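Tokens for chain A. Residues wanted.
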């Protein structure tokens, strides 16, 4: 006497719900990280190119200072004056003694403007200053 009939097992159905959840989380992560990276660096600045130079990895807590051709200073996407930069950096340097600062100066910017910005940083107590450069694009 046969009580149950065995049906052949077909392929297991693909569970898409969890995969879609993971993909949406990854998509949100990449969109947000792109937005924050875009705000850090001013797109109106053409940084100098050099053949040789160390590959720079952004340090944790590094302050990015963008200096445009006309001498405008941009920090965290906002235009500030040299006095405002001094106030901000001096309050940070009192808390963090070795605060890193990365200076993105436009390649066409006058040398005097860059020196004045460095002087503001040093006057505020910031000595850990590095300069942003890029490697030249390979010729086709």
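Reply:
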């Amino acid at each position: 006497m046969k009580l149950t009939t065995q049906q052949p097992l077909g392929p297991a159905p693909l569970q898409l719900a969890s995969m879609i959840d993971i993909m949406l989380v990854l998509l949100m992560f990449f969109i947000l990280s792109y937005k924050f990276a875009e705000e850090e660096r001013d797109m109106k600045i053409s940084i100098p190119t050099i053949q040789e130079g160390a590959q720079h990895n952004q340090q944790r807590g590094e302050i990015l200072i963008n200096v445009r051709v006309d001498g405008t200073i941009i920090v965290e996407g906002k235009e500030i004056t040299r006095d405002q930069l001094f106030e901000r950096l001096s309050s940070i340097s009192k808390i963090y003694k070795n605060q890193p600062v990365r200076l993105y100066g436009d390649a066409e910017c006058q040398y005097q403007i860059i020196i004045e910005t460095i002087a503001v940083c040093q006057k505020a107590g910031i000595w850990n200053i590095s300069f942003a450069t890029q490697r030249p694009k390979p010729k086709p």
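The chain has three helices and five strands. The mean pLDDT is 81.
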